[in-house]
Design goal:
The chain is 78% helix and 0% strand. By secondary structure, the protein is mainly alpha-helical.
Length: 167
């Protein structure tokens, strides 16, 4: 692969992951993980992205640690993944609109089979992330505390640089 083709490929991949990550914050999916992945790819070419990779990584890891701190959170996350997969299967099967559906049938399960496939894929990713988070962080509150300290320390260093730049 030539240098230009590689650069364009990485750029497209980085921006795609970044945009999918931003969308996944509002839609089902691992938003911070997507943003982190996009920034990691873009950081190979852009200084602004390189400066943002570590703060996003720390926040994503803290979110993972906090998601498995208690059993109710773990159960809620697993149930969410199951519901997401079930909705995806419903979209894939595409049953006819029920009699109680108040609007046009064209609004029943919009998006078709690909919406269902992405929902099921998101559920598998969610389960994988729950397992990863559980194995890495559950029963180890010191790891979450360390991430919080790192985030605070980065915030102080950023504030110190900003104050130093103003003087």
């Amino acid at each position: 692969m030539t240098g230009v083709a590689k650069r364009i490929g990485l750029e497209v991949l980085g921006w795609t992951l970044l945009l999918l990550g931003v969308a996944a914050i509002f839609l089902p999916g691992p938003g911070l993980l997507g943003i982190f992945a996009g920034l990691a790819v873009l950081s190979q070419q852009y200084d602004w992205a390189e400066r943002r990779v570590e703060p996003v990584r720390l926040r994503a890891m803290l979110g993972a640690a906090e998601s498995v701190e208690t059993w109710p959170r773990i159960v809620a996350s697993c149930l969410g993944a199951i519901v997401l997969a079930a909705c995806g299967v419903l979209w894939i099967i595409t049953p006819p609109a029920p009699d109680w559906w108040p609007v046009s049938e064209t609004w029943w399960l919009p998006g078709g089979i690909w919406t269902g496939i992405t929902q099921v894929a998101s559920a598998f990713i969610a389960v994988g992330l729950i397992i990863y988070s559980y194995r890495r962080f559950h029963g180890h509150p010191e790891k979450a505390d360390e991430l919080r300290r790192d985030i605070k320390a980065r915030g102080r260093r950023t504030a110190d640089r900003t104050v130093g730049a103003d003087s």
